[in-house]
């Protein structure tokens, strides 16, 4: 691959995740501390990302893949997104914030699939080249997190303005990307294909059925972390919380490097259970830690992100791909993505918001939250899912580099 194309694709990934990382981590902090939304309202706003994840496949499958070149679609979405983010920064009421952010997420979340597909159409060896390009997205997330934290703007609307400016830059940069014509032009649109419903036949396999249900359930405690950790760390006065939380993405990069060794030696069941156990431990650390002598617990909880995420979600994607018949692999990935990042995350956003209100006394600026109980209930949820996998997931299959199932 020519260096000029590799460089442009890497910058594309970097910018695309700078935009998301600028506002996503600090969203609930701004909503609850500055706009004084309730936990239920903040959870509902956070759930717009999951709603967009469920809807965006229709846009990609119906419009982007059939009528317009990918780079032009990316440019249009980011230009529109920049305007919406600018409006979000000045919105004050729940209705206005919810509506504007939902509209924005409907613009942004298709870009994740589009940047991936654009990259895959221009690399020669996907297994070798794609991870080296995609990692720049993680680096972008880390960079903007450090910037937001160092500027101490986590409780303000400034992250939306940063994201808006980055969206304008990304819009213009998209027009300089390699020309990528619509890949499904002339093909018939199918809802079953877009949502991966053809893969429902795989649920006849009891182990895969348990895995699918556990994956949806696992997204509920996962959303507790993504929705309210930054809010919590700011509430206990941890300095530069957004910057410190980027250690989670750094640990994810490190864990990706060792995952091939783990996958060859450990069964899928064991890896999934380790990942879920890590989630439970992470929440216990958040419950017991503090910004003083116990601050090491916060660091440990954040650094567990690589194990929490890769051991469950990345392993789950590989397991899904391995278990699916060749003709259903794309459908299976679409189904799992829709169920986890869509259904699971949306349910988790609503439940976590209601849970925060349950453990809150007072309202508005005088609200006092029992964070310890909030995190303990999250730990209990992760532990229950761990038990479900431990007792009901019977398969001892390993991930095989050759694509063959290996049972113990």
Task: Provide structural commentary.
- With 408 residues, this protein is mostly helical.
- The protein has two domains: 1-185, Growth Hormone, Chain: A (Up-down Bundle); 190-408, Growth Hormone, Chain: A (Up-down Bundle).
- Helix content is 75%, strand content 1%.
- It is built from 17 helices and two strands.
- A two-stranded antiparallel ribbon has the order 1-2.
- β1 and β2 form a beta hairpin.
- The longest helix has 30 residues, at 206-235.
- 46% of the residues are buried.
Quick gist of this model?
It is built from 17 helices and two strands. The chain has helices at residues 3-24, 27-33, 39-46, 48-64, 70-90, 94-122, 126-151, 158-174, 191-195, 206-235, 241-245, 247-265, 268-288, 295-303, 305-323, 329-358, 371-392; strands at residues 360-361, 368-369. A hairpin with a 6-residue loop joins strand 1 and strand 2 (368-369).
